[in-house]
Amino acid sequence: MCDEGCRPLGFLLGLPFMLVSFILTLIGILLWIITAPLACCCPCLLCFTILAELAISLIKAPFTVIRWFTRQIPC
């Protein structure tokens, strides 16, 4: 059984993908800054809330990408 610590090469190979997802994180931060105040003002509380949740998932993208890519590399 493989240990999580035996995949240093997977981390290095995943860095380009992490840089792309970092750009998506910046877009997510801007989207969240715009939609968070608008979600409080919207009477239906649904349209901007969905955009805010999308922004939060974009902010978490680098961590998700690097974990997924590291798990794809066999020991």
Automatic annotation (TrEMBL):
The chain crosses the membrane at residues 12-34. InterPro entries: TAXIMIN_1/2 (IPR055283). Keywords: Membrane, Transmembrane, Transmembrane helix. It comes from the Eukaryota. PANTHER family: SIGNALING PEPTIDE TAXIMIN 2 (PTHR33834:SF4). This is Signaling peptide TAXIMIN 1. It comes from Sphagnum troendelagicum. The lineage of its organism: Eukaryota, Viridiplantae, Streptophyta, Embryophyta, Bryophyta.
